[in-house]
Amino acid sequence: MIVFAVVTLVKAAVAKGIPVAEAATNNVPVFVHYATIAMVSAIVLLIAESIDFAKNKSATTITRARWATSLLTVATAMILSFGIMPLMKDLMPLIKTNEEAHQKFQQLHHASEADISAMILFALASIALPVFDKPKQI
Fold it and tell me: What are the angstrom distances between the C-alpha of 137 and each of 55, 134?
């Protein structure tokens, strides 16, 4: 949702005559905060899944698939927080005056959209998979 919100804000700013680079610069802090929140959430997810793994050695295929999608969620959060966002923050001061920096920023922005989409997809799969698991026999 954050991507759609920021894209909407940028489009609204451009419609008012604000250059795209300036509108993007104004919204980068939102992405930076989102990446931090996503990373903290991913750490919590990793801790929870680690505890479940330690308690549940004889896991079903669905449980293993949930663990895998949770790990992929954590991986995509790490890519966003440690790979994409630092580069975007470094380019931020340059995108208004340097076309090459602006193009690189745009590439990173599109990579962040794909990364966030994958993160959401993996997280939703992790949440939904237990529905398909068979109940444990007591």
Answer: 17, 9
The full length of the chain comes to 138
Task: Estimate to the nearest angstrom the gap between the alpha carbon of 82 and the chain centroid.
Answer: 11
* Model confidence pLDDT, tens digit, residues 94-104: 888 899 998 99
With residues binned 3-state (H G I as helix, E B as strand, rest as coil), the percentages for the chain, rounded to 5, are 85, 0, 15
> Which contacts (CB < 8 Å, 24+ apart) does range 84-87 have?
84/35, 84/108, 84/111, 84/112, 84/115, 85/31, 85/32, 85/35, 85/112
Q: Which residues of 35-64 are buried (b: 16+ CB within 10 A; e: fewer)?
A: beebbeebeebbeebeeeeeeeeeeeeebe
Name the residue among 97, 44, 94, 42 with its Cα closest to residue 73.
42
Q: What is the pLDDT of residue 11?
A: 84
Quote the distance between the C-alpha of residue 45 and its chain's center: 14
How far is the C-alpha of 93 from the C-alpha of 83, rounded, in Å?
18
pTM of the model: 0.82
